Amino acid sequence: MVTVMGYTSTLGRRALRAVRSLFPILPVFSVLWLALGATAVLAISENTLENNYRLGSGDKILINVYGEDDLTVETQLSDSGLVNYPFLGELKVNGMTVAELEARIHQGLKGDYLVNPNVHVSILEYRPFYIHGEVERPGGYPYQPGLTVSKAAALAQGFTERASESKIFVVRGDDPSQTPVKVSLNTQLRPGDVITVEQSFF
Fold this sequence. Notes:
The chain is an alpha+beta fold.
């Protein structure tokens, strides 16, 4: 407030009333801001995952060449990682990123079949993750971007009474050495990860 000689000025009183009038709607703006922020973070994490992710057995992908319906292929990758693609034959897809597969198909079609093919590859479904040990329903579950160890346990109907939440290990699906790594409940998971929840002895 602005005071002169002990009295609150008219300008100060108006400013105070304006600030007070905002109090009822400030919580609403806060909730909206947090919701928009969470959505943006999730979108970024999904894009980052798809850009850096290497395809593997169990992933379901869609290959689309704009304007060429006969070159649209939807398939789930098998253990061999081979995709039988029109005009190009069998393509070894396992271990490639989406961008690498797009470039491979673009180069294969360019010239002999199309002048400048517009190729787009998207991941329709990621390969599942697996959770074993002290959870109510061990097994494989569909992967979703943003999945954490805590959320994975919830999908498996939660921990058993004997579970140790401080003794949880993950073998990354893209780790050739298959080395178990100790993780926390907030650790982000990736497709193909295998989680093991050990017993507590206390």
